[in-house]
Amino acid sequence: MTIPTALFQGQTPLAVRMRPTSLAEVAGQSHLLRPGSPLVTLADPDASTRAATSVILWGPPGTGKTTLAQAIARSSGRRFVELSAVTAGVRDVREVMQEALTQRDLYGQSTILFLDEIHRFTKAQQDALLPGVENGWVVLIAATTENPSFSVISPLLSRSLLLTLKPLSDDDLRMLIDRAVTDPRGLGGAVSLGDDARDALVRLSSGDARRALTALEAAASLAAPTDDEQHEDEGETDASTVPVVTSEQVAQAVDRALLRYDRQGDEHYDVISAFIKSIRGSDVDAAMHYLARMIEAGEDPRFIARRLIISAAEDIGLADPQALPLAVAAAEAVQFIGMPEGRIPLAEATAYLATTAKSNAAYLAIDAAIADVRNGGFGRVPIHLRDAHYPGAKRLGHGKGYVYPHDSEVGVSPQQYLPDELRGRRYYEPKALGAERDVQARLEKIRRILDGR
User: Fold this and answer.
1) pLDDT tens for residues 184-207?
2) 48 pLDDT exceeds 60?
3) Among 55, 88, 274, 453, who pairs with 83 as Cys (CB 3.0-4.6 Å)?
4) What is the pTM of this model?
């Protein structure tokens, strides 16, 4: 059988060839494509003469932002202009706006402006979009992989609908992969796909359609026979001669799963948040998973180590006094030996913190004390506790009546330490967990002595 080598070499990438021509072909994003939704209305050719709302499409790579924009353009009958924030400047934007105004006034034709990666636009560049969007010269469809709340100016956000795209489901990816294998625009049946290979493609794609199709194309090129093999098979056209893409070939094409992680964006904060909360919740397996994600994504190990130190102090405290020294030691080890070996002390500290006893009593105590101080609840230092070492201090009564605790048999003497205004205030309330259980019992005795009971 002759394999059409043009499918694999010197041609437009498979992911581009398989881009849907209408919204009906779009995989996933069903929550945005319900009848009457803004995107469906925008794609309706009967609505092309009516005013439409600009939209900002926010989602991870490979979820269909560009696909949706182009499908809308093909279906709507509107004029379509595409700019990339990587290459376009203020002058380009103004030229598009002026031409859109001319097209509207002279020919009654509205313009869709698709702006990819709008988060790369400066404030001045985004400001240049405002007149056209506000006056309806263009319908803006902007795409971004970063949270628009931080990357898009407020006036533009307020004049647009923010639509969030989700990573594609496994079923969506399977459908896309199978379509690409058989569709004439794709591989046209030149190869077939084993179930294991399909599952491997889905697993390695992490919800990214572009990644799935790129990997499929690479794996299919590995499955295609050489020129000699094609020559030997000439004249054989039955289905049994079609090369089968295997999971091994997929593994060769894609050596690891796509990890969604932006060290400056949402994923950075979401993963570290999940990491700390997993430690706090004593789920060592989840904590180890999120640690692995950060390591594989190239997160700064010093950042991870700092978070472990905070976790040891905030969530474990005196329930295990060894937690904080161990976290500090892990941070020093990472600094000393670097990566990749640094992953080992980080994992050790993570496992220790996740599995040990937890108490946030010290954390709550300092926050409560700070709240009192900020609210004016501090008062004067009791006179018997004031510094009595400088000349004239004794004449002022400083230190008079102070009881030296070491003179007591139990090392604690009855006397007041808090200011009068806060007398009897309790900040630290240890829990009956881990080593803090002993602290709790000891503190009860101490407080009885201090109160003179």
Assistant:
1) 988 888 889 888 889 888 888 878
2) no
3) 88
4) 0.55
> What angle in degrees, to the nearest 10, is found between the helix axes of 266-280 and 343-355?
50
How many degrees, rounded to 5, is the angle at CA 72 between CA 70 and CA 76?
125
- Amino acid 9: pLDDT: 45
CA nearest neighbour of 60 among 213, 274, 260: 260
Q: Which amino acid is at 91?
A: R
Six-digit token pair at 158?
Answer: 């307020």
The CATH fold assigned to 169-253 is Helicase, Ruva Protein; domain 3 (1.10.8)
CATH C-level class of 377-450 = mainly alpha
Nearest Cα to Cα of residue 141 among 39, 17, 50:
39
- Residue identified by tokens 């077939």 is 192
pLDDT band, very low/low/confident/very high, at 282 (cuts 50, 70, 90): very high
Query: How far apart are the C-alpha atoms of 377 and 368, rounded to whole Å?
Result: 11
Give the residue with greater pLDDT, 18 vs 235.
18
Alpha-carbon span 385 to 311, nearest angstrom: 34
- Please report which residue ranges of 6-64 form alpha helices under DSSP H: 14-17, 38-43
For the chain, helix, strand, coil in percent to 5 are: 55, 5, 40
**Listed residue (353, 364, 273, 363) closest to 314, CA to CA:** 363
